[in-house]
Amino acid sequence: MRVLRRALRIFKREIESLLSERIAFLRAVRRSEGRIAWRAVVQVDRESTVLVGAGSRVGIGTVLAAQSDETGPASIRIGRRTYVGEYNNLRADGSEIAIGDHCLISQFVSLISSGHEFRDRSRLIEEQGIPEKKGIRIGDDVWIGAMVTVLPGISIGTGAVVGSGAVVTRDIPPYAIAVGNPARVVGERT
Ligand SMILES: CC(C)(COP(=O)(O)OP(=O)(O)OC[C@H]1O[C@@H](n2cnc3c(N)ncnc32)[C@H](O)[C@@H]1OP(=O)(O)O)[C@@H](O)C(=O)NCCC(=O)NCCS
């Protein structure tokens, strides 16, 4: 009997979480002119925003997480005719991820726009708050290769290309080609 009660509790919790995620998904779809795949995962609370511009697409398995935190609401804004492929991780808690028009965000890309303070070893990391450096801005016509990670506070200029596997720890200027971990500019589009 106890096992059954526990199973029911877990089932109820799972259904509630699935329902609230699907409601968030429908809210984002209703506000957006672009397409979000049914099998994308949208986690957005009532204060935060997910907007996908006209002609843009978000692929299956991509997580669009925009949750408020103690610093304020979150937003993910994707411009027009931008492709966000499969299994990407866009995480804008308490901050903003802004992606321009005509961008290509490949697969397994992580755009992580906030983090944790951690320097004080006498306190738990989870209790130390959120660093000032946050948000991610990506210009127009940017191509981000597969498995790239972009860290909080970073801007990637219009027309830039980021090679697959790069970890972007500094701003990338417009039309630059950047590769590696940490990402370094190795060229420029002519
Ligand atoms: C960055 C990129 C666009 C460069 O393409 P390219 O100009 O044709 O580059 P090349 O293959 O001529 O390589 C030039 C140099 O950069 C290096 N390089 C290329 N891509 C690299 C990467 N992702 N990371 C590290 N180094 C890289 C090469 O080793 C080569 O170095 P070398 O001159 O010392 O030999 C490409 O390599 C890339 O990463 N594409 C992303 C593909 C992808 O993710 N597609 C997803 C589907 S949309």
What features would you describe in this structure?
The chain has a single domain, classed as 3 Solenoid (UDP N-Acetylglucosamine Acyltransferase, domain 1). The chain has one helix and 19 strands. It has one helix at about 1-30; strands at about 35, 40-45, 50, 55-60, 65, 75-80, 85, 90, 95-100, 105, 110, 135-140, 145, 150, 155, 160, 165-170, 175-180, 185-190. A hairpin with a 4-residue loop joins strand 18 and strand 19 (about 185-190). The model has no long low-confidence stretch (mean pLDDT about 95). The site of coenzyme A has 12 residues, from strand 18.
**Low-confidence runs of at least 5 consecutive residues:** none
Beta-strand share of residues: 25-35%
- Top CATH class: Mainly Beta
| End-to-end Cα distance | 70 Å
* Count of β-strands: 19
Gyration radius, to the nearest Å? 18 Å
Estimated helix fraction: 10-25%
Main-sheet strand order equals 1-4-7-10-13-16-18-19
Going by CATH, the homologous superfamily would be Hexapeptide repeat proteins
CATH-derived architecture: 3 Solenoid
Order of helices and strands: HEEEEEEEEEEEEEEEEEEE
Would you spell out the secondary-structure blueprint of this structure?
Elements (H helix, E strand, L loop, with lengths): L1 H30 L3 E2 L4 E4 L4 E4 L4 E2 L4 E4 L8 E4 L4 E2 L4 E3 L4 E4 L4 E2 L4 E3 L23 E3 L4 E2 L4 E2 L4 E2 L4 E2 L4 E2 L7 E4 L4 E5 L2
Parallel strand pairs: 1-4, 2-5, 3-6, 4-7, 5-8, 6-9, 7-10, 8-11, 9-12, 10-13, 11-14, 12-15, 13-16, 14-17, 16-18
Antiparallel strand pairs: 18-19
The structure holds coenzyme A.
The site of coenzyme A has 12 residues, from strand 18.
